[in-house]
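Standup notes
- DV: blocked on the single-chain target, sequence here:
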Amino acid sequence: MFSTSHRKAGLLLALCACLSAGAQGTDQTSAPQAPAPAQLEQVARVPGVDTLLRGLNAGFTLSGVHNSSIGWYNVVTPAVSYTFSPHYSADASVSFYPYRLVENENSTGQPGGPNAEGLVVDLGGVGDTFIGLHASFNPRILRNTTTASFSFPTGDQAAGLGAGKPTFDFSDHMVHYLRQTGFLVDLGAGDSSGLFNRLVTNNYTSVGPLAHFQAGVVVWLFGRNYIQSIAYEQLPIGKQTVYTTVGPPGAPNSTVVSGSGVSEDNGFTTSLGIPLTAHFTVSSYYNRSLRQHSDTVSIGLTYVLRGTPIKHRLSMIDRALREAEGAKQ
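- DV (later): unblocked, structure below
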């Protein structure tokens, strides 16, 4: 019995020494880490700008978008992020619209599609500027990211691209992983729809208090490819004002709508990310708005200044060591 105990103790010490050596050989500031679900939401429509690398990162996405109300248009979204530590990061982004169709305020025609009499071409539109502050905790069992988001009125309010005033939103993003599959829940509240579900490019912006939540699943595939599918609900609280690109049917030239519940929205969003190289990623999404009765499809190409190699995969032991070391800081 005595010798057996000594053998067990010796094996335990040897294992601890191996784990300690592996942890000391890990460079957290430059080596890629295992995929984290919070990275999918941190920078709107720029999926490659995440918190895998410490310090400053930047990139942009060029997307083609089709909306069932206004047809095809283009979106260019540059973004910049800064990762202070494994727990804290911040980012900023703004969208530009080189080509877009908007309501013709001088027409009495009924909007109904890209060739409708009530739509005209708008070149060079600008959206609101978004700022996000993120704090991530509990990386082992439940990944939890709390985000404070703010927008600044750089967008064209009349074209449905801006709220016309500074807005805010607070949300909590929780994900539990079972191997490569994560189950996620988001809860939040704010005073503008522009800060919720920012992956999707909407043709309206609402101003007024609202609560929101979404739930779904994200699956990481080989080579850091991922697919995510969520169901969402946007629930207005009190009176709302909605600034739209296209007025509702039967109300031509009406791009401003006010009332209770006018900004309610719910539906489904499925997105896909395919890294081509360390710096280029193809991303796509399909959004079905049940409340607004609209469909939006997008495909885009993202360039990231500081890319992450897509062929390197960490073992389960290396991943656990990274997360444990990050939790100590």
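- Follow-up: The chain has one domain: 53-328.
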